[in-house]
Design goal:
- There is one protein chain.
- The protein has one domain: Helix Hairpins (Orthogonal Bundle), CATH 1.10.287.3510.
- The protein has 3 helices and no strands.
- Helix 1 packs antiparallel against helix 2 and helix 2 runs antiparallel to helix 3.
- The model has no long low-confidence stretch (mean pLDDT 86).
Length: 106
């Protein structure tokens, strides 16, 4: 039987992989994918907490489900905007390496 701690451990592991991806990668596309991993870890936590809050089944409390839907919506908008910006930068600089993004420098 799965307990809440199992979902929390899965969420921590997924968040850690995403955090490593954000800190270690140089490609902007891979950084966006790592951020999505981190958001999915938060979603797992919300759904698990909602399922186990009243000790019942999966659909006893909808707070975590509603927050997860908002996070998925925000993540979709974030990916769309970030990919548009990355495509524009790639068109101008011919690279998606974040170390070579110096357009904000004077």
């Amino acid at each position: 039987m799965l307990e809440l701690i199992h979902f929390n451990i899965l969420s921590v592991l997924l968040f850690s992989v995403g955090l490593y991806g954000v800190l270690a990668r140089k490609s902007a596309i891979l950084i966006i994918m790592a951020i999505e991993l981190m958001l999915n870890a938060v979603n797992i936590n919300f759904i698990a907490a909602a399922a186990f809050k009243h000790g019942g089944g999966l659909f006893t409390n909808f707070d975590g489900h509603i927050l997860t839907i908002f996070i998925i919506t925000i993540a979709a908008a974030e990916v769309g905007l970030a990919l548009a910006l990355i495509l524009r930068i790639f068109r101008n600089k011919s690279t998606v390496n974040v170390d070579q993004f110096d357009m904000m420098k004077l």
